[in-house]
Fold each of these.
Amino acid sequence: MLTLYGTELSSRLLLGTAQYPSPAILMDAVKASETKIVTVSLRREMAGGKSGDKFWSLIQSLGVHVLPNTAGCHTVKEAVLTAQMARDIFATDWIKLEVIGNHDTLQPDVFALVDAARILTTDGFKVFPYMTDDLVVAERLLEAGCEVLMPWCAPIGSALGPLNLHALRALRGHFPDVPMIVDAGLGRPSHAATVMELGFDAILLNTAVAKAADPVAMAAAFAKAVDAGHMACHAGMLEPRDVAVPSTPVIGKAVFS
Ligand SMILES: CC(=O)[C@@H](O)[C@H](O)COP(=O)(O)O
């Protein structure tokens, strides 16, 4: 089981709800992924009117936890206000905190992120901060009261997969007891398996499933990859070695002439 802020979850895959070809495909993909948490952007809900209401009813019908996010926010003020509105609208104190610092890479502004996280944890929020893979930022976010971290593996929507395995490995190694969810930039199930093999606790993704030719099948494939990587990590993986070692016994082999 995965435990996040005291909530036990039977899945290690978190799914975004944007960009699916249709609401029906989104619903089927969520089911196929077996996720227990979906992220929802407050901005989308605020689109309001009929489509906003419909979307919210659909999300509620999924029977999973909702993790609202502050996608699209660029300042501390904007992110804090968005989080407070999300708490009222979605009736949850969970917030995925995004404070974007660069338009091209959608890289988080880690300084603003730490400031916003401190304000929100003091206000009782359970903050899931979307961060870079930086050790010092991780330390500051923990000091600010975050109990879960969400390092990126590549820019949002890029599908590049883990760009800096060294940094991810270092993060995992320095904070072995902090739940960490690798978020954004995954393109294929093998990327998910790779980061789970490093010992991360979960994966959050959206684009690679929503934009797949068959989002439902891709959601199922990611679910299997996440579980496979997690199982492998705890099964004791063989370390790579430079020499060849026969995998079949050489002693007592039959000699044919
Ligand atoms: C849904 C969500 O929260 C995204 O902002 C998230 O970071 C996913 O990134 P990808 O779309 O690259 O999977």
Amino acid sequence: MFLMFLVFATTGCALYLWLLSELSESKTRLPGPMQFPLVGSMIQVITTHPVGFIAIDKLSQIYGDAMSIKLGIVDCVFVSSYESVKYFYGGENCVDRPGTGIWLERQFYKKIRVLSANGPSAWGEMRKFITQSWSSCGPMNRDWLRGILKEEVTSFLKYVEELASSSPGRVVPFKASGFVKVSFTNLLTATLVGKRHENYGDKKLLGLVAALDKFFRASRIGISVMTAYPWLRFLFGRYFGYHTQLESVAGIHKYSKELISQRRKLGVYKNGEPTCFIDAFLQRIESEKENAHLFSNEALLVTLADFYTAGTETSSNWLLFAILLLMTHPEKQEKLYQELRVKVGNRPIELEDRNELIYTQAVILEVFRWGKVTVNLESRQAIRDFEYNGRIVKKGTTILANMCRVYNTPNVWKDPQVFRPERFINEDGQLIKEKAERIIPFGLGKRICLGEMLAKDSGFMYLTTLVQKYRFELPHEYLRNPPSLELIEGITTCVADYNAKLVKRETNTQTICY
Ligand code: HEM
């Protein structure tokens, strides 16, 4: 009896103390759902909606454009308006990344990566180096990129045509892990070593794509649970996809190791100017022995893994979104094609054509708005305590963007659920700058996406050359049930695999390939 009384009394006291501290803390932190011991606000999230980003969006409509929420044991703030994203991502308070779980493991528990490295000495130095070397022999050098991009897009189109002409009714499968991703992965390899794989059946290339696919699929399984309780990976990693993630990271490293050893064997890096990113990195390893923790063989390996994970799924998902949206909105597709026909004609499209192609630019922006791709951007971490709207955001808090709200706010975006590129164009037929600026798929500020230029240039070239050559039509199978436009949750959002009928444009009887 006494024991029971003791248990009840202790539990009651603990609850009372928790309630007191919760009441006082909730007055100082940003508004948000109540935070319980151990589970934080998980119950409110789960019971709001089974899809995490929709649940967060719904809750943010109750608690406002900066909402504090505890996911398990992790303190988070979700920012849900363009202005608050600009403040949190664009400023100086949140320039670190949380980097837990698989990210730490992937970087051998050292501060050597770009994507989740913290502190200016780690990511700042690395970013500076990447920007410098990409500006001379990499995707930030337009002339350098132009050649590589032309080669890859030409091969891509050739492959698409082979696939279409060998498929019944020219119906081609567009799968998340299919040829679109293979091509973007190949493009990335080319930007790192200056040379692409000759064909899409290359075993090493396919091995890398399979490893990347496995990584992203496994991340979907336990992404919220593992974020909420990072230590769970040690106990139940098998069930939350953690072990699969580790296996896929090993696959990505294996491919990267081979690229590095090929460049080492060639030995170009030993003499004169480097001709590709890996050579530039190898040269730096040789010359900066004292900085070995940053410029080491391990660091090169994880940097390449960063590029492959950050750059392939995002880019290919975006193109898959674009084709699906154009296929299901044939009038928009026709408008896009007509712009290309009038302004470019049958000649090969060049990057320089983009400025003249206003409707095309509007389509690209609208696909980003509609599809999100990076629905939470990439997480950040507060490096100090700071004040926002009169409340305190504590050092170490994880910051995430809720792009669903940013891109769907009805007073900014009329009919946000409708795919309408025209929303970006004014009466004079010009792009509305203020609207275009609100599309921020690459983040903002000091840690803005390093591959922004590569992604924008390649996205433009792939999309326009495809539309110049083909009309995308819904195959018969969709007459009753159109393909789903629902966004599937993951590190990046995607759509379900779909098929498209590729009808060759009549004006393209002459070759338009490069
Ligand atoms: C459609 C394509 C892409 C999208 C939507 C995208 C989006 C993003 C976002 C939202 C971030 C976080 C930015 C922030 O915190 O403010 C990021 C970071 C990054 N992205 Fe991309 N990305 C894309 C393509 C690429 C490509 C092709 C690469 C090339 C390798 C790349 C490499 C990186 C790297 C290295 C970072 C980390 C930068 C840092 O932490 O300093 N991304 N990306």
Amino acid sequence: MAKDDVSVSRSEAAAAPVKPPAGPVPDLGREEPPRPPGRVGFFTRIALSPRLHEIFERMPLMNRVTRREGVALFDVVSGFVQSQVLLAVVEFRLLHILAEGAWRLEQISLRSGLAEDRLAVLLQAAAALKLVKFRRGLWHLMPRGAAFITVPGLESMVRHHPVLYRDLCDPVAFLKGQTEPELAGFWPYVFGPLAREDAGLAARYSQLMADSQRTVADDTLRLIDLSKAKRLMDVGGGTGAFLRQAAALYPELDLTLFDLPHVLEVADRFSPRLTLAPGSFRDDPIPEGADVISLVRVLYDHPDSVVEPLLKKVHAALPPGGRLIISETFGGGEKPDRACDVYFAFYTMAMCSGRTRSPEEIKQMLEKAGFVRVTKARTLRPFITSVIEAERG
Ligand SMILES: CC(C)=CCC/C(C)=C/CC/C(C)=C/C=C/C(C)=C/C=C/C=C(C)/C=C/C=C(C)/C=C/C=C(C)/C=C/CC(C)(C)O
Ligand SMILES: C[S@@+](CC[C@H](N)C(=O)[O-])C[C@H]1O[C@@H](n2cnc3c(N)ncnc32)[C@H](O)[C@@H]1O
């Protein structure tokens, strides 16, 4: 079971050298593209020709296109290294150190505990990622680095990525289903009854979920209108962060938080308007009484065999004309998106329980459960969340 402690910096860990796990050395046989190319588009045909690569590189306007494509490809090629640079920046607390002021390399070295020669390489990489910059002998924080440490939960999200990256370190075996992903046991551990074994760890990760929910809730609430709603029930609402933000915008709204009993034990009882409804949407009916029900980052955690009955239960709990709000990242749409179709699709695949669904799939499931007037997915930032609304038919 993964138990990464998000509260202990790796820079404080014992200094014994750690050998990275050895793996097979890849066989680097080079595979030539087919000649002539198969049925491919015009531009793809051009890109399949090494000769045209050379010609384009020498043509004044076309070389801009090839260079731009080269940069985009290199970004994909090096994505893992960029993420690991970010993780090191986080673990050595470099952005926090620079948020206190601009410092010389030696000063940052003393404060971070990282030797100057290696720190210089790390800071230079962070500067290339525009997180920091070097001016007149001092290292400074850049707006991007400042935003990074300010977005709620983002640093902790990055600190838990080693669990995901361990699962993806052999993507072929992972995709063939030949691995046992750690992430599969991770969130069930945090939210499941096993959380009692390590209540501190569970609380820290519930906090991470609540922190990251602040941005999700902000975007969701900007995309929906609850001014006519009387009672909002958040199903799988965790500690209640979404309802707290909804209550701040709509003070007259009555609220119900439905989640597993042990999760509600640590829920935020922020208002007398809030009712806690402990239960499992797998085993229990969803309580009636709300004219709006929300499912925020819930469906993609579960397989269709759980989601379909859940949507039916939500339908049964709503009055005629009642609304359902689904907010999470959707993938598989007509416009493939890096955040949803790369990050979240693989993240949820590693969880082994649910999957990232397309808006079209969600629509079909909603209609099957009896919902009507299903809206198109709307979003402000696809990497934060998108929203679909539907009405009880
Ligand atoms: C005036 C000009 C032009 C410039 C001056 C400079 C200036 C002031 C710039 C502005 C700086 C600024 C204010 C920037 C703000 C940036 C923001 C708000 C960035 C937000 C970024 C958010 C990110 C990257 C979010 C990432 C979210 C992640 C990775 C979420 C992961 C969630 C998971 C894994 C959830 C799992 C749930 C489960 C388990 C599947 O159910
Ligand atoms: C990914 S978290 C999302 C929490 C919150 N909505 C958010 O966006 O931060 C999934 C939530 O679903 C809850 N959950 C999982 N299985 C459940 C079940 N069978 N019945 C009720 N809640 C459940 C978990 O306890 C957790 O709070």
